[in-house]
C-alpha cells in the first residue's frame, strides 16, 4: 500500500520523533511505501529514515522552491512546480493518507484532503494521528462540526482518529483489505 504522510519538516523533540519513527518502522516492516513531501530534514527525515531502514520504499514529492532539501536516495522523487501540484501528486500516488503533527502547511494539506473526500473526489482512508494529544483541539472542532450539521457525511466516514501508529496502520490495512 502507498501511504501518503503529511507532516512537519521541523526538528522536533522526542515526544514527536519517537512515535513518528515507530510508525515509520511499521510502514517499512509491513512492506508499504511512504509517499511524502520528499524533505530530508526534521520529522520528514525521521519518518523517511525509519521506513527505508525497515525495508519500505520512498516516493517523494518535493516542490521547486524546496528541491534543495529533497532527500537523496529516495526510490522515486518528483519535483512539483508549486504547492497545489504537490498536494495533487501526493494524493494521486497514494492509496491512503495519514496526517501527523505539523504546522500551517500540514493543516492546509489535511483540510484540503478532507474537503476533497467530503465531496467524493477521492475515497481513500484518512487517518489523523493524534501523537501526544497534538490534535485534541482539532478533533473537538470536527466533532462539533459533525454534531451541529456542518458535515454532509458522518465524521467517521471522513476521518479516523488514531492515538498511535499501531492503530493508524491497523485501520489503513483493514480499510484496504490487507488484514
Q: Which overall shape is indicated by the principal axes computed on the Cα atoms?
A: globular
Low-pLDDT segments, ≥5 res: none
Query: How many β strands by DSSP?
Result: 7
Radius of gyration: 15 Å
Order of helices and strands: EHEHEEHEHEHHEH
**Tally of helical runs:** 7
Distance between the termini: 12 Å
Side-by-side strand order of the widest sheet: 4-3-2-1-5-6-7
Beta content: 15-25%
User: Structural class, judged by helices and strands?
Assistant: alpha/beta
What's the rounded overall pLDDT mean? 95
Task: Please describe the biggest sheet, giving its number of strands, its sense, and whether it closes into a barrel.
Answer: 7 strands, parallel
Indicate the percent of residues in helices: 40-55%
Structure, described:
It is a single chain. The protein contains 7 helices and 7 strands. The protein is α/β, with parallel strands linked by helices and about 180 residues long. Helix content is about 45%, strand content about 20%. β1 (about 1-5), α1 (about 15-30) and β2 form a beta-alpha-beta unit. The protein has helices at about 15-30, 40-55, 85-90, 105-120, 135-145, 155-160, 165-175, and strands at about 1-5, 35, 55-65, 75-80, 95-100, 125-130, 160. It is globular, with a radius of gyration of 15 Å. The mean pLDDT is about 95.
